[in-house]
Design brief:
Shape: flat
Strand content: 15-25%
Radius of gyration: 29 Å
Helix content: 25-40%
Number of domains: 3
Structural class: alpha/beta
Number of helices: 11
Order of helices and strands: HHHHHHEEHEEHHEEHEH
Largest sheet: 4 strands, mixed
Length: 309
């Protein structure tokens, strides 16, 4: 059966697969066996009969094999595959694993691959052509595209280091400038850029914020080192996760990350220099200025903030 490309992602796979039912399989086997044993009423045999037992074993084995085949087919279906099966599909499209990438993120990248086979023009086509350089420029985490003016395509790159987010001083290094130039040259290839498009390639616009917090641990809590570690890990995971286009920073989410088991209260100070971190533009990305010293700026205390006042 020929399946439209878009249905590889969104279609209900069950509509393309024959349903499996043990009783149907058993009936088919009994009917087949009856043909070879005309003198025996196979369906009327008692459960204890060896022939009946053999038929049931064959039916269960057939059920198992058909289920394995169904699972194998599902693992070749982008919308159904997960884990190493999904990574294998990604490799078929020439995609490599990215650090801390979820299955849903990888599925989204696979869907974008088809745009690479077209001349740029749409937002997704420009994104995919720029992201295709990730094989050579590992610092490219994501790409966003907008319209700066009539006929001018504004391509914004989100960059990162192998060991995490870029610091403020690293945004304007010569290495970052080289990456921008490589992307610009790639997008200006005659087989990629539409003749009438003028392309501007720039890095994203960082919107800086800093986090300081007093985290109060209950007096009866034990394992302060473990609690402290859980707090810092959860906070850093949230910061790194929000380091992307179309992401926002919410105070409630930060408090939730800090409020791990054993924590009784949180006093948060979020400084964004007047920027509204919940209303960022398409080319802006929230960047935590004090991520490298967050261990020092999150202070662990016993008791409650009301005890300090």
């Amino acid at each position: 059966m020929s399946v439209p490309r878009k249905e590889l992602y969104s279609a209900d796979l069950e509509t393309f697969l024959k349903s499996i039912d043990y009783e149907d399989i058993l009936d088919d086997i009994e009917h087949c066996l009856q043909h070879y044993l005309p003198d025996v009423s196979v369906k009327e045999l008692p459960e204890s009969d060896p022939i009946k037992k053999l038929v049931e074993i064959i039916a269960y084995h057939e059920l198992y094999m058909q289920q394995k085949i169904r699972e194998s087919i599902k693992n070749c279906w982008i919308s159904q595959a997960y884990g190493h099966h999904l990574k294998r599909l990604a490799q078929l499209y020439g995609l490599e694993d990215k650090k801390d990438e979820t299955d849903d993120d990888l599925k989204a990248r696979i869907k974008q691959v088809f745009n690479e086979h077209n001349t740029a023009g749409s937002i997704e086509a420009y994104r995919m052509h720029a992201l295709s350089l990730n094989k050579d420029c590992k610092q490219i985490k994501n790409v966003n595209v907008g319209k700066h003016a009539e006929g001018i395509v504004d391509v914004r790159l989100l960059l990162e280091k192998d060991d995490g987010l870029l610091t403020e001083s690293e945004f304007l290094t010569s290495e970052m400038g080289d990456i921008l130039e490589k992307v610009r040259e790639h997008l200006y290839r005659e087989d990629i850029r539409p003749l009438t498009d003028c392309i501007a390639v720039n890095r994203f616009e960082p919107v800086y914020y800093s986090i300081k917090a007093d985290v109060y641990i209950s007096l009866d809590s034990i394992g302060i080192k473990e609690i402290t570690n859980n707090i810092l890990v959860a906070l850093k995971e949230y910061i790194v996760k929000q380091y992307d286009f179309d992401k926002k920073i919410y105070k409630n989410a930060i408090i939730a990350a800090l409020h791990q088991q054993g924590v009784s209260d949180v006093k948060l100070s979020l400084d964004s220099s007047g920027h509204d971190l919940t209303k960022l533009q398409w080319f802006q990305v929230p960047v935590c200025k004090n991520l490298n010293r967050i261990d020092e700026d999150v202070i662990i205390k016993y008791g409650s903030q009301f005890c300090d006042s």
